[in-house]
Amino acid sequence: MLNRLLKHALPLWLALAGAGGAAASELVVATPNDPSVDPHYLYVSTNTAYARHVFGKLLDRDENAQIKPDLAVSWENLDELTWEFKLREGVKFHDGSDFDAEDVVFSFNRVPNVPNNPASYESNTNMIDTIEAKDPMTVVIKTKDPYPLLLRRISGVSIVSSEVVEGGTTADFTSGKIAIGTGPYKFSEYVPGDRYVLKRFEDYWGEKPHFKKVTFRIMPDSASRMAALLGGDVDIVEGFSPSSVETLEERDGFYVAQRASARTLWLYVDMQNDNSPFVTDLDGNAMEKSPLKDARVREAISLAIDRDAIVSRVMGGLAEPANQLVPAGWFSNNPEIPAVSADVERAKELMAEGGYADGFGLTVHAPNDRYVNDAKIAQAVAQMLARIGIKTKVETMPKSVYFGRLNNQEFSLSMIGWDNSLTGSSLMSLSAAFHTRDKESGYGGWNAGGYSNASFDEAIKAAEKEFDPAIQEQHLNEAMRILIQEDKAAIPLHSQFAILGVREGVVYEPRVDEHFSAMLATGSE
Amino acid sequence: MTLFLIRRLLQSLMVLLVMSFVVFAGVFAIGNPIDSLISPEATEREREEAISDLGLDRPLYAQYFVFLKNVSKGELGTSFVHNRPAIQLILERLPATLELTVAALLFAIVLGIPLGVLAGLNPESLVGRGILSVSILFFSLPTFWVGLMMILLFSITLGWLPTTGRGETVELLGIQVSFLTLDGLRHLAMPAINLGFYPLALITRLTASGTQENVPLEYMKFAKAKGLRTRRIVSVHLLKNILIPIVTVIGLQFSVILAFAVVTESIFAWPGMGRLIIDSINLLDRPVIVAYLLVTVVVFLIANVLVDIVYSILDPRVRLGRM
After folding, report:
1. Cα(B234)–Cα(B164) distance, integer angstroms
2. Which residue from A minimizes the CA distance to B96?
């Protein structure tokens, strides 16, 4: 045993005595997220981000959420339903085998068929009727209906090796046995709950990333992630808490990487129930008609909220006030919708016009572990509503409880933050969160306010079928106008920033979708 | 002894059954894991499919019976998040937590008993009072705060120890252990000490009060009158008489730390079982939660049996058959 001790300990001691932090060719990332190594299991954004390192897709989304070619080099519409993709020549998998059309077909077919999958990636493939390999370098996809969004959808399908993965399970990915893709990094080691280690793939077809080795250290506690950064054990902290920004900026040798992200927070308003569950009169009794059904009241709520104050006081400046559901400067941001500035006097007038001059009672609901400062934002909103006489209570809860109740329409005024990067437009949020619920066609799956407007639905359907981006944007702008200006059915709050803590010497520019990507990190030495 | 073990086994099975139902019903009441796992893009139909695939649309009793049926086949369910058997996930993390627990308890015992005896023999002296006052501090300071302060001091300010994580591991009897490498020990030190503070305080105080109670007793006076050296009086006669409550507490603390080292494991990013249960609760990964709590019950039961056996060794008057 002593021998063993010396054998292992001595070289380690030497290594430790030498290097204070990580070596220059290695990047160490502290992250709160445990990965799913299987790229077709558990569709959550953090897994999509992990998968981008190891697996290629036909098309990917770049750091600005724009479509870019990956394993497909070109594509064309043979007709409205048929798409032909030409594949990239000479691409190798990590095990040295060649990539071809069979791998693509296999991967698309595997996506909806992973057993026991609580969150399937199949929303990226279920519009597809057939997919075929025309020849080894050509894939033809036929959709069930005209579906212009296909190019964005297929960026959610990671391509695995058909030879290796055939018959394999999620557990085989976790062990690394079949975790073989075409991405810039290859699987090296995964210790659940501890670390996920990737090595650079030297035969990658594209530009090779700067770091030879990337270690994701899985650390759920935000204070310890910060401590690990300050102690020199990690180079980048993901899931960085805004309350730590000041501390980090005061210290030498670190900086905060930030950019406006694709995630916009808004409040759902219960538009459906006459007897909304959390609306009461001032004495706490149920009301016969919910004031939230009055557009003047909804406008008053929106006017009472001082978004600039939320951004500067609660978010520490790391957010942008929002007047609609996609951030300014984005495709389908409707420029005709004016910015909202808080106007308490006007809000009080509107309350009086609606017959609620004395106010009423309301509870605002929010998660407390999902978005940056979510619970604090809800508290700020409640205080601002109190200024126009709405006696507002706040109830926050863990996301595991919150989202189930939210989608069950159990709340009256409730918070959500929507990541718009999938479509790069308002299409996803508008059709999922505000189109009339329709189980058959899949619309309105997150319509937690029970909003329903026929002309809005029409605009969404038209936008979805439209191949010409300019016309599609017109439809989306029209839908946004109806929702925000006409019906005031959603109350936008702000778009949050993606922020990370970074050690000086490492250069990192965040992606707009908040996905971490080691490919974007470089060293400054 | 055999009778004792059989009776204990039957009792344990009853406890497990009741426990499994309580946990199952509790997690069922919190809500549906699908809602927090599924992507916002999923349609209503996809959601319903996922729910029925996992059998979550069935009533509570039906789900519970399916669970019991699987348990009788030795399966505790498959994790929703990891898509692997829950029991495998737990056992995989057990060595890390076990290592941490043993290190913490060793630290507490090796330091706690001598300090306790010292304080018990000289309760009025400065040293005795000092030890007892400091032990109160260790009782009352919250673990997470002490942990963060330790990281701040030893890692960030002084730079002596790594901030978090588990160090280099080597294989010992098929299990990955980190206490055989220097890097591993450097990583182990802070979390083990942080976790050991509470049992240290507990053991110190118990030993001190036991010593204080025993010093004026006849057998101690007799030993002294016989002319035995203090060292022998303490190590043979005194310790044997005060160890019973201490062994009980060590046994209990062992199970408690093993099962619920959650805070320390989170702060020091230690890849143990405590982290697993917290992550699983956050995501409502029901199979893991249920399996974990059942494993916990088993650990408690085994520790209690061991404590009873140690009693009978320490005190010949204790007969296991009568317990």
Report:
1. 40
2. A194
